[in-house]
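Batch job 17 of 40 flagged for manual review because the log was empty.
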Amino acid sequence: MSLNPTEPFNLYLEVGFVAGLFTASPFVFYQLWLFIAPGLYRKEKRYVLPFLLSTVGLFIAGGFFGYKMVYPASLNFLIGNGLRFQPMITIGEYTKLFLTITIGLGLIFEVPILVFFLALMRVITARWMWRNLRYSILATFVVAAMVTPTTDILNMCLFAAPMVALYAISIGVAWLVNSVGEHRTL
């Protein structure tokens, strides 16, 4: 349903934007690498291919997870919660929810990459991340509550669950970076 004559046109633009964002993500992340690379040592620059593969893969995986899991669950909950009412969802609200979920989760799935670089620069360690696990879970649920497009607990948990899993994966990433770094300095 469209309440505004520009909504169908905006729908095409927004869907094109999302498709273009995910299609162009290898180029965008390569440009990000080119921005970061001048500040790195030669031995650190060898991570370009793993960086590109992992950032693109995680971004697409996050968007796919949002599209296949979180978005349908959000719609089912929201529409099912108001069964007494006739749902009249506008194109604008439908695509706004879609964009928020897919792009938001695509960006959230980039956490292991951020942790990789922070561990590489020795800003954080796996031990520090493990010691602060309970605070990170609290922060994860606070962030999930802020970025969830709805106010229900189910959708907040749908956002928080992959974030907690990504934090656990990030502990492993930091441990690998720190252990490889220790072996190289010996």
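Reviewer: the log was empty due to a logging misconfiguration, but the result itself is present. The mean pLDDT is 84. Unflagging and moving on to job 18.
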